[in-house]
Design goal:
The chain is mainly alpha-helical. Among the domains are: 15-206, 3-Layer(aba) Sandwich (Rossmann fold), CATH 3.40.50; 211-264, no CATH class; 266-372, Arc Repressor Mutant, subunit A, CATH 1.10.10; 837-891, Arc Repressor Mutant, subunit A (Orthogonal Bundle). It is 60% helix and 4% strand. It contains 47 helices and seven strands. The chain has a five-stranded parallel beta sheet with strand order 2-3-4-1-5, with helices on both faces.
Length: 895
């Protein structure tokens, strides 16, 4: 029998008069609000969220052991004006009668006047439904609600208790606010409360500490840690409250707390003790074995777990572990992962319990994952198992060897296979070694390994894996051909690849669009080196149209850069610049490492900047290109760098250095007509600058320049300087009239003709030619041709009509046309294509660090209108970033 209180008016003071249905006194500690330690950190974002509990009938605070649930709710409850009844549930079995007896006693201990009519259960296993109805009725009549907190509610396992609790909650209406603190999902109809907006939820993800909160918590323990260091600790613990507190307590004992927090061994710490006691030892032997085995995995599903354990039934076990918040996180679609600290501790325990098992588990995982088609995880587990033959075979069989060259996983793959020792043999291993060497432009070693791979394949049986390996060989052959400037070899490699592709499943080929993109990029580069511009353009344009997103971004960047070089060599700087800028943004938008690729786009931008006499900008692009590729370059890139660097040095008057820089000094099986032509062009310009016109003519006569308009114009200029005016005009007349030559060539040709006409006394023709040259050059912002022209042209530029044509873009007001070239000229008021008034308004606000939306609001226009103006500003200033636009505008004194 349950005793009746001696003084119903003082229920709190008379609690020891009560006994539970078994006749034992109630444990008063279960009704006490837990004390919050001095080091507790109140997190306002969680407290604010908990305030919603006063507005909804049900609140669930659900998290793993040590997530900080109880202290969070206790701290919040202590500050409430409402009556709070607290009950910490017992871990032992308890029937409905015992549960409700304790709930009633918790209400009385909190000062809630529960009448004698409600009664109290007399049987630990049963409760009268009339009792529950009377309790709900009394609660519903209250003016202010009672907040009932049931801590450790996961200990309540009887389904009928959940039904009874839901019934009381429903009928108590506004008189009861129920807060469940639990590790597991309660058996209440939560979906109904969610749908009706009657539930407040705080779960593990929200309970996790942020880096800033972790730093503040550590500070309460007397540990000062920068937020950056706290972030690393949070990443390792996933913001787990108990883990952070235990780490802090341990670090207090360390002579170097910051180092300890960075490097602590989880398996030898109080964290390990906590997780073993609270999580692992609570599980059955079978569940413990499963957890230990899956600890080697980053993620797992039931089938993969069963492959590691050799037993079925993993699905229900994993689902229950997740429901228990036992540090098993559900990723969706039946996939799970372990909390990183828990996994770390389990792996250490696995090595102690079964020292030789871990490699075998990695091997099983690799084999299962290979069948499921997850290549990155297959490679990681194959490498962890030390099975390099399997790992290299998986990469090659999947046609993924091209990923060593795409920038997405290049570094990761190179690092992974750097651990493969020389004892691993076979075609796949040799192909991987060849790819690693060629990706670093180590041609000699790469070709040796490629030859070994081909020898291995030649002795094997034909089959799909061998076809994939031969296709990888073709890709590497094409790259080797590009690096050696061998277009014939590249053509053969691509032709072989196309034949092999017919023998492979289409889905496998579709998975790797980078394979085709890389093959065509190498082919286009080799053709370009040989001077076959149109054939190169065909291959490179096909790459630009390749699908694949990020996987083909780097080949697209390279191809756009090569196309830009072709435009530059043909004399079209504007087109070249647009393609080069597009090349740079191609990889930037996918977040690939910057700078990436060979840097050829930046070399083209440097050369264009020299033609515009923007020498500081040219130097910056050359430096960026050098950063992009610190290893040996392919011939096209080396020649592009030689052209840009030599022309920059010429513009600065350093003739000796220009001659030295003009020679690309590359290893190539086939000579490049345009590379040799531009080397000779620079040497000729140096001879002219140093007063040796005959030598300037002689240098160019050694180079066939019939199909190189730029060299032909330089030859005409040299002949004119040597006094051979008719020969100079004849050279210009014999230029190809197919329209390939762009303004960078035609402007120079017109200036040579103008000088010849002026020497012949035909001043009117000379002025007309200079005027045409000015109008054509202005569109492309070409300044170097006028600065390089002789004194006769500079004199003509000083005359009235021509001076007006040159004003505002060729030289600054107050500076003589044809004044000093180089850096001084760059800092004059050379301006780009004129900015409109509205574009200047946008530019000024850009310099004030205003966002696009803020600019739109300030100018009373739409955001899309601002974006359109920004695109135009970027184009006119030849930049592609905000900071560069502001810097460039300040250089040009537009701001």
């Amino acid at each position: 029998m349950t005793a009746i209180p001696e003084d119903p008016e003082d229920p709190v003071g008379s609690t020891d008069a009560y006994v539970d249905p078994t006749g034992e006194p109630f444990l008063r500690t279960r009704f006490a609000l837990p004390k919050v330690p001095a080091t507790f950190l109140r997190r306002e974002r969680l407290a604010d969220h908990l305030d919603q509990a006063l507005l909804t009938p049900l609140t669930v605070v659900n998290g793993a052991a040590g997530a900080g649930k109880t202290l969070l709710v206790a701290d919040w409850a202590a500050g409430l004006a409402e009556t709070v009844a607290w009950l910490t549930n017992d871990a032992g079995d308890q029937g409905p009668g015992m549960f409700w007896a304790y709930v009633l006693q918790a209400l009385r201990a909190a000062g809630v006047a529960v009448s004698d009519e409600v009664g109290c259960p007399a049987d630990a296993g049963l409760v009268d439904h009339k009792l529950l109805a009377r309790l709900a009725a009394e609660l519903s009549g209250r003016e202010r609600p009672v907040v009932l907190v049931l801590d450790e509610y996961d200990h309540v396992t009887a389904p009928e208790i959940a039904d009874q609790l839901e019934s009381v909650l429903q009928h108590a209406e506004q008189g009861l606010r129920l807060v469940l603190v639990t590790r597991t999902e309660p058996l209440l109809p939560l979906h109904r409360y969610r749908a009706a907006g009657g539930m407040t939820e705080i779960r593990d993800a929200e309970l996790a500490f942020t880096p800033e909160e972790a730093a503040a918590l550590l500070d309460r323990h007397g540990l000062r840690l920068p937020v950056a260091a706290a972030r690393a600790l949070v990443d390792r613990t996933r913001g787990w409250a108990a883990g952070l507190r235990l780490c802090a307590l341990a670090a207090q004992e360390s002579p170097d707390p910051e180092t300890y927090l960075k490097e602590f061994e989880a398996d030898r710490s109080t964290v390990a003790d906590y997780l073993f006691a609270e999580v692992l030892r609570q599980q059955t032997d079978r569940t413990q074995d499963l957890l230990l085995r899956v600890s080697v995995l980053e993620r797992f599903c039931p089938d993969l777990a069963e492959a590691l354990t050799g037993r079925g039934g993993a699905g229900p076990i994993l689902a229950e572990l997740h429901r228990q918040n036992a540090f098993v996180e559900h990723l969706g679609h039946t996939w799970y992962r372990l909390h990183p600290l828990f996994a770390e501790i389990l792996r250490a325990h696995l090595r102690v319990r079964s020292p030789d098992l871990e490699p075998e588990l990695h091997r099983r995982a690799a084999q299962w994952l290979r069948r499921s088609g997850s290549l990155p995880e297959t490679l990681a587990h194959g490498a962890a198992a030390g099975d390099w033959e399997f790992t290299a075979g998986a990469l090659v069989d999947d046609l993924a060897i091209g990923q060593l060259f795409t920038g997405l996983r290049s570094d990761d793959l190179a690092d992974l296979f750097s651990r493969m020792g020389p004892e691993t043999t076979g075609a796949a291993a040799e192909l991987v070694r060849a790819a690693r060497d060629l990706s670093r432009r180590d041609l000699d070693c790469g070709l040796i390994h490629l030859h070994h791979a081909e020898q291995c394949l030649a002795t094997g049986e034909p089959g799909e894996p061998e076809v994939a390996a031969w296709l990888s060989c073709a890709l590497l052959e094409a790259l080797a051909a590009r690096l050696t400037g061998s277009p014939g070899r590249a053509e053969q490699a691509v032709e072989t690849a196309e034949e092999l592709e017919h023998e492979l499943p289409a889905p496998l080929l579709d998975k790797h669009p980078e394979l085709t993109a890389l093959l065509l990029t190498h082919l286009g580069s080799a053709r370009l080196w040989a001077g076959r511009f149109e054939d190169a353009r065909t291959a490179l344009t096909a790459v630009v149209a390749c699908p694949g997103g990020a996987s083909t971004a780097l080949p697209r960047e390279e191809s756009l850069g090569h196309l830009a070089l072709i435009d530059y060599l043909d004399g079209w700087p504007g087109r070249a610049e647009r393609k080069a800028l597009a090349a740079m943004t191609e990889t930037e938008r996918y977040g690939l490492p910057q700078p990436s690729g060979s840097g050829i786009g930046r070399l083209v931008l440097a050369a264009v900047a020299v033609d515009r006499d923007e020498l500081g900008r040219a130097r910056a692009f050359l430096d960026e290109a050098a950063d992009a590729c610190r290893v040996a370059q392919d011939p096209v890139t080396a020649a592009g760098r030689a052209i840009a660097a030599a022309r920059l040095l010429l513009a600065r008057g350093d003739t000796r250095a220009a001659v030295a820089a003009a020679d690309p000094a590359v290893r190539a099986d086939v000579p490049s007509p345009w590379a040799e032509g531009h080397t000779a062009l620079v040497a000729s310009a140096v001879h002219l600058a140093e007063g040796r016109p005959d030598s300037a003519v002689e240098v160019l006569e050694q180079v066939p320049y019939d199909d190189q308009p730029a060299c032909a114009v330089q030859a005409a200029r040299a002949r004119l300087a040597a006094g051979h005016r008719d020969a100079a005009i004849d050279t210009l007349d014999r230029l190809c009239a197919e329209g390939r030559a762009g303004p960078a060539v035609t402007v120079r040709a017109m200036l040579v003709r103008a000088q010849a006409a002026d020497e012949a006394g035909d001043t009117d023709t000379a002025r007309a030619l200079v005027a045409r040259a000015l109008m054509e050059a202005r569109r492309e912002r070409l300044r170097r041709p006028f600065l390089e022209a002789g004194p006769r042209v500079r004199r003509l530029l000083g005359t009235g009509p021509l001076q007006e044509l040159a004003s505002g873009w060729l030289a600054s007001p107050g500076t003589r046309h044809g004044g000093p070239a180089g850096e001084a000229a760059e800092h004059s008021s050379f301006v780009v294509e004129e900015l409109s008034g509205r574009e200047r308004d946008v530019l000024r606000r850009l310099a004030q660090m205003m966002s696009t939306a803020e600019i739109a609001a300030d100018l009373y226009v739409s955001v899309n209108t601002v974006k359109t103006h920004l695109k135009s500003v970027y184009r006119k200033l030849a930049v592609n970033r905000r900071a560069d636009a502001v810097r460039r505008a300040r250089e040009l004194r537009l701001l």
